[in-house]
């Protein structure tokens, strides 16, 4: 299957699972969806609809491409011939120099960029034909990468994101200017009337302020040897993009997690060492201290934010320790779905990392170690501002044997209701 199409299907399934999880939680608590939950469901529903439409279009393209490939195979077996009709000829604008390997491409876009600088006439002609065939914008200098490269770029773009894909998103476009969001900083008050026709209690308590987000540039870059590009295989371009986007997304993921950690403030529970943490996740007297601490953090979010938390964020290695928690007889307290839910505090699912105490678990590499935080948060209260315009450059600063490829975007993160929407537990040291 086309890797981009597969990634889109996985993204759609993840959104569908999240939407169903919110509705299921509300149904189990016998309540209506809160305003934030309803807004989140609507936003994610709109995103899912766009992805579904894109998937449908991609499936049609795949089916059409398969049919064309079959016809092309038959044509290749026949003798070459040219047929003119009314002295006109149809011409495809795309010269097809830089098609993907799956489409039969044999040339590397980046290799031709390098060779053109060395006065390779053929490479320069291919680039010129390609640039004329495609529409270009005004977003900086350089030459436009072929469309199939952009598609592959989007395929890999979200693979390394976990928390960043769970929070709210706002598109920055190409505007990196600071963003101001208003907020209420002090509440009003009311009082019971002491007697009929008594004087109304008047106060001057209501006040407002602003949160300001200043987007910054997140950059991923990689040096590539000339020998690598000389292989002239489109697969090389895919590897280059994959490495660049992995670095870019890791940085975005780390920024989102760091914003939550900062907003959480002082930890609600602290484990001085790994040994102390291991003791806390071990059954003792019918209780697991860690689960009590976790429930306390979730309750603290509910008390302070007046709405429930829905995310539990930890490192991948920390998540593995949660899976090993057992009762006094050695039975896992968080079994896989096929085991049922007897004595279970949580349950894992195929679509996500599972749930613990009603919190959706996300195992993220964006969590730093020592002091290492375990976050309990409301996803809707963290906002990721991000541009969708990514610029590509190339140069040879180290001589003809090395070139540089880079990609960047504007990113800003804001966790609203600091100290209320996120709480954290902490393992201080090894």
From TrEMBL:
**Where does this polypeptide localize?**
Virion
Q: Which residues form a coiled coil?
A: none
- Which segments show compositional bias classed as Polar residues? 80-90
**Lineage: superkingdom:** Bacteria
InterPro entries tied to this protein: Phage_capsid (IPR024455)
Question: Compositional bias of type Basic and acidic residues: which residue ranges?
Answer: 27-45, 91-104
Chain positions covered by the region annotation Disordered: 22-45, 80-105
Q: Matching NCBIfam families, A to Z? A: major_cap_HK97 (TIGR01554)
Q: Please state what the protein is called.
A: HK97 family phage major capsid protein
């Amino acid at each position: 299957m086309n890797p981009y199409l597969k990634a889109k299907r996985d993204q759609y399934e993840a959104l569908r699972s999240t939407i169903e999880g919110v509705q299921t939680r509300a149904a189990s608590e016998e309540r209506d969806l809160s305003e934030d939950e309803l807004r989140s469901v609507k936003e994610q529903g709109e995103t899912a609809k766009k992805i579904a439409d894109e998937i449908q279009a991609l499936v049609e393209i795949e089916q059409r491409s398969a049919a064309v490939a079959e016809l092309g195979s038959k044509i290749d077996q026949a003798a070459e011939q040219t047929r003119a009709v009314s002295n006109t000829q149809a011409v495809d604008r795309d010269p097809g120099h830089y098609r993907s390997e799956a489409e039969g491409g044999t040339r590397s876009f980046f290799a031709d960029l390098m060779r053109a600088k060395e006065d390779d006439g053929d490479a320069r002609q291919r680039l010129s034909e390609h640039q004329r065939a495609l529409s270009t914008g005004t977003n900086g200098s350089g030459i436009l990468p072929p469309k199939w490269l952009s598609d592959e770029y989007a395929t890999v773009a979200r693979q390394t994101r976990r928390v960043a894909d769970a929070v709210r998103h706002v598109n920055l476009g190409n505007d990196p200017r600071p963003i101001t969001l208003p907020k209420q900083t002090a509440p009003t008050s009311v009082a019971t009337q002491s007697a009929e026709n008594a004087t109304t209690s008047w106060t001057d308590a209501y006040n407002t302020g602003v949160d300001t987000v200043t987007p910054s540039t997140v950059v991923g870059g990689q040096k590539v040897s000339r020998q690598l590009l000389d292989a002239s295989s489109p697969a090389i371009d895919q590897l280059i993009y994959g490495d660049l986007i992995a670095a870019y997304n890791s940085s975005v993921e780390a920024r989102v997690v760091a914003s939550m950690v900062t907003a959480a403030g002082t930890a609600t529970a602290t484990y001085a060492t790994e040994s102390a943490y291991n003791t806390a996740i071990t059954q003792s007297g019918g209780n697991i201290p860690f689960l009590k601490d976790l429930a306390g953090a979730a309750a603290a979010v509910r008390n302070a934010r007046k709405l429930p938390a829905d995310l539990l964020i930890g490192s991948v290695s920390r998540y593995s320790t949660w899976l090993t928690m057992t009762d006094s007889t050695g039975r896992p307290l968080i079994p896989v779905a096929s085991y049922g839910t007897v004595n279970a505090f949580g349950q894992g699912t195929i679509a996500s990392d599972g749930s613990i105490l009603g919190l959706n678990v996300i195992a993220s590499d964006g969590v730093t170690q020592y002091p290492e935080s375990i976050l309990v948060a409301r996803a809707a209260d963290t906002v990721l501002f991000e541009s969708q315009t990514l610029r590509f450059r190339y140069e040879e600063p180290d001589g003809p044997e090395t070139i540089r490829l880079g990609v960047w975007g504007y990113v800003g993160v804001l966790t609203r209701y600091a100290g209320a929407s996120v709480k954290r537990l902490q393992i201080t040291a090894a």
